[in-house]
Amino acid sequence: MIRHFIQKYLEPKALVLMYHRIAAPETDIWDLAVSPANFEEQLQVLSRTGEVVPLHELAARAKEKRRRKHLIALSFDDGYIDNYETAKPLLEKYRLPATFFVTSCNLGTEREFWWDELENLILHAAHLPATFVMKVKGVLIKRDLKQEAELSYELQQQHMHWKACLTPPTTRRSELFLALWTAMRALADSEIQQLLQQVRDWTKSEAVNRPAYKSMSTGQLAELAKQQLFAIGAHTVTHPALGHHGFDFQKAEMAANRDLLQELTGNRISLMAYPYGHYNADTLQAAEAASFDAAFTTEGSTVNKRTHQYRIGRFQVNDMTGAAFAKTLQKWALT
């Protein structure tokens, strides 16, 4: 048993790092944004290691069970505009390769992703009606906001510092937001958009498309794909939580996204990342049926010889300095 533990501990591993946004938004409730300054410090750490490889290379080595000691690969999810405007030039500066997993529904539009708009509507509106009542798939969501109908400075500060991924809701508004987000995430996009419109109607507001929250354009996507440092990966059409849906739905989302990205880039799209990291047994089969070489979750785990090619883990990188990042990399490598 001890020998087995030592062998497992010392065996060659690899790390896949996951980013979403390179920006400094006022609120970041899911802890997904890294400031440009901290991102550059993190790239400086990575550039000194000499261990960063393209994700497809790491995935191929995992599939072939080859040694992959001291390898790191970078990935970005969703396709936000800051990936092109901010991450791209910094990655070029340090000559570090990266794969961008792109959800295609908002490409070339001014639209925000639904979760960003929902957050803006519920947490940041200056005034809301005092009572909220809505049914989602037969489940009644009802909240009395009381004095929180008006957005005070203190309430605004609470929302700015709340991390939904780490702590329970701290306000009535954040309770409402999380209840809606949880219920809506499980649905197909057509249902999500209907519910989002109901929320807009309740707030008596129109969709507000903030430039910093849009996706990159199709031209920007094509330019990324032309560069040798970068690759494009699939991330579905509408960003559903795949594990809540059946095989046919999942495969259709994957295949339509793959086909559009291939058309826009002229390249084969060989890698896939599951939105929210959400998957079930059908998801793994759908990824294989859609002819992806490998697929990635959001589970924080290293890549080793036992890693399933359609369930490769990634570590979410948070907004931290280069020094803190270096220590975190060491900790992850021992996972």
Automatic annotation (TrEMBL):
<dbReference type="Pfam" id="PF01522">
    <property type="entry name" value="Polysacc_deac_1"/>
</dbReference>
<dbReference type="GO" id="GO:0005576">
    <property type="term" value="C:extracellular region"/>
</dbReference>
<dbReference type="GO" id="GO:0005975">
    <property type="term" value="P:carbohydrate metabolic process"/>
</dbReference>
<keyword id="KW-0732">Signal</keyword>
<dbReference type="InterPro" id="IPR002509">
    <property type="entry name" value="NODB_dom"/>
</dbReference>
<protein>
    <submittedName>
        <fullName>Polysaccharide deacetylase</fullName>
    </submittedName>
</protein>
<dbReference type="InterPro" id="IPR011330">
    <property type="entry name" value="Glyco_hydro/deAcase_b/a-brl"/>
</dbReference>
<dbReference type="InterPro" id="IPR051398">
    <property type="entry name" value="Polysacch_Deacetylase"/>
</dbReference>
<dbReference type="GO" id="GO:0016810">
    <property type="term" value="F:hydrolase activity, acting on carbon-nitrogen (but not peptide) bonds"/>
</dbReference>
<feature type="domain" description="NodB homology">
    <location>
        <begin position="70"/>
        <end position="335"/>
    </location>
</feature>
